[in-house]
Design goal:
The chain is mainly α. The chain has a domain of 92 residues. The protein has a two-stranded antiparallel sheet with strand order 1-2. The two termini are 25 Å apart.
Length: 204
């Protein structure tokens, strides 16, 4: 297994991003889950959800390439802007009153719809910033895909709920400025409300 490096020993470049820290936490939690033999069957929806993520990643990368090509062409023409066409998945619309069956039906309805297309105009003066935003989205999605693949047969929730003292997680989050919501789902935030005032200097 990959060795998990403690944050204090990692290079600043390795831990400067929130996604990197969350990935580090999940890898450490994975080690606990493996030690405790917390395995799970591969979810039936895994392949479908991975395909959607990979399709979205390809779309972002295609958008990056198009932006660079369009910007290059605009500079040749001495234009101050360019336009690109983007495609995005239609997002399901949920309401608080929906039952589980209704939410699933909404997901299926949206999944059958074609991607939304829209035109976007970008000023050359804002090109670098626009590219940086899409590049960050690519990095975030790559991290999500990597984590999803790495953790697909490990039940992380069991160790977080029943085996790990939540004060360890909360102290770690505070020490590294990671929002606790990135680690604990809303149900766990309520369950562990008693531990939320834990200091970052807590030692188990």
């Amino acid at each position: 297994r990959d060795r998990v490096v403690a944050p204090s020993r990692m290079q600043k470049d390795d831990i400067r991003k929130l996604d990197d820290l969350v990935e580090f936490y999940n890898k450490a939690n994975k080690e606990v889950a493996i030690l405790c033999n917390h395995q799970r069957s591969l979810p039936a929806s895994f392949d479908g959800s991975m395909k959607k993520l990979q399709d979205r990643l390809r779309e972002f990368k295609r958008e990056l390439k198009t932006m660079e090509e369009k910007a290059k062409d605009a500079r040749k023409r001495n234009a101050d802007k360019y336009s690109i066409e983007t495609q995005r998945d239609v997002k399901p619309v949920f309401t608080a009153e929906m039952t589980y069956r209704e939410r699933e039906a909404e997901k299926q309805r949206v999944a059958a719809l074609p991607k939304e297309k829209s035109a976007k105009t970008i000023l050359l003066s804002r090109h670098d910033a626009a590219v940086e935003r899409v590049h960050k989205a690519v990095l975030k999605l790559e991290t999500t895909i990597r984590m999803k693949e790495d953790l697909k047969e490990v039940a992380l929730g069991t160790s977080k709920i029943n085996y790990m003292d939540p004060r360890i997680t909360i102290a770690w989050c505070k020490k590294h400025s990671v929002p606790v919501e990135k680690i604990f789902a809303s149900s766990l935030l309520l369950k562990f409300a008693w531990a939320m005032e834990t200091s970052e200097h807590f030692r188990f």
